[in-house]
Amino acid sequence: MNNFYANIEIIKEGKYMKHTLSQKFNRQVDQISVSLIRKFDEQVTNIDGIIKLTLGEPDFNTPEHVKQAGIQAIEENYSHYSGMSGLMDVRVAASEFFAKKYGLHYKPESEILVTIGATEAISASLLSILEAGDKVLMPAPIYPGYEPIITLANAKPIYIDTSKNDFVLTPEMIDQAMVEHGDEVKAIILNYPSNPTGVTYTREEVQKIAESLKKYDIFVISDEIYSELTYGGDHVSIAEFIPEQTILINGLSKSHAMTGWRLGFILSNEAFIKELMKVHQYLVTAASTVSQKAAVKALTQGIDDGLEMRAEYQIRRDYVYQKMNDLGFSIARPNGAFYIFGKIPKGFNQNSMEFCVDLAQKQALALIPGIAFGPEAEGYVRVSYAASMENLEKAMERLSNYMKAHPAQ
Predict the structure, then answer these.
(1) Which of 30, 43, 117, 398 is least surrounded, with the fewest CB atoms within 10 Å of its CB?
(2) What whole-number distance in Å separates Cα of residue 147 and Cα of residue 130?
């Protein structure tokens, strides 16, 4: 009995763990941690009266007709598994949606995979292609959801610093990275419109990037989840130019305010989808059938549901951009997504975590510290303007009060 307890640790609330097993997890798990975005958001949640402009969560509700489609699916007993690739009617609807919106043509029967949000699409894609020692190029700063999956695959992220070019990736940057890392590069991840910067690309810029990437035998994983939220121009997918290399990721979380429905897509050529489906199936079996039926309505009758939201986001963007610009934040003008990424003015604390903690404690306003998006983003803060104008007005007043009370040194 004593020997038994010698090898047991009490963790919490009387739960037991054989402590020798705690050393036997996948060693790569030790190299990752919970997203700093989520950790910081939880850290400030209990501050009295806090206004949180932290998470990438639309403040709109799912459109009513989409909700009703979900309710109808439940009533009609769509409570069983769909096929691994997803229901055919949602894949047909997705095929037509992406053709009408972006001029992309994917066969519903073999080139579209329905996933549990873009997050699972990212995991399935990376785990399908990466092997130990592979390298993945990523323009930085970048959403922190990619690196942990790369690490779990025992591969290595290679960051391309875009901060000196207003966060715009160029063909020259890609070519330089390929010169330095060569045959070890297995893929590049693109995310545009960008989280955290809100920057996106013109048709000419996308085409030039595509021409550069076409020279190399690498996968192009393009996360275009914010494609419906562009301002001043239409979204252009890199899959239009290099479909033979591209694994396109998208979904309904941002375009239709359906984050909780967890519905995404991988679109690619048939050979790629055949391999990706294996990993997808063992990760999740299939996406929620009820969510898929709601998605059919979103992609067809609700094809332009995102436009009304986009118009409101643009008003908010212009407001927050001007207010922060007036306060001295340097901002590469965002033309997509719903984020402002501002450089903390000179003379203020450039440690973004300390700046944001102090702001939250003294003014009950929570912004995400730039360091959450990598060392290239230190000295910045990310503001999510997916919030009501009332809250944004209060937030900018609190930010102004903080800056005036703590003048630059």
Answers:
(1) 30
(2) 12
Rounded to whole angstroms, how far apart are CA atoms 85 and 77? 20
**28: phi then psi, degrees, rounded to nearest 5:** -70, -25
Q: What is the mean pLDDT of the chain?
A: 94
**Alpha carbons 176 and 197: distance in angstroms, whole number:** 23
Q: What is the pLDDT of residue 406?
A: 78
With a cut of 60, say whether residue 322 has pLDDT above it: yes
First to last CA, the chain: 64
pTM passes above 0.90: yes
Q: Which of 230, 354, 251, 246 is nearest to 298 (CA)?
A: 251
* 135-140 and 156-161 strand pairing: parallel
Which of these, 265, 298, 302, lies nearest to 280 by C-alpha position?
265
Structure token digits, residue 192: 């545009």
Residue 325 sits at φ, ψ, to 5 deg, of -60, -40
E strand segments, 207-308: 219-223, 246-251, 264-267
Band (89; pLDDT cuts 50, 70, 90): very high
Burial 301-333 (b: 16+ CB within 10 A, else e): ebbebbeebbebbbebbeebbebbeeeebebbe
- Residue 21 is predicted with a pLDDT of 83
Which among 378, 359, 385, 381 has a CA at the least distance from the CA of 368?
Answer: 381
Domains annotated for the chain, with CATH where assigned, are 31-61+305-405 (3.90.1150.10), 64-299 (3.40.640.10)
What strands, in cross-sheet order, belong to the sheet with 219-223?
112-115, 264-267, 246-251, 219-223, 185-191, 135-140, 156-161
Q: What is the mean pLDDT of residues 1-12?
A: 47
Neighbours of 24 (CB within 10 A): 8
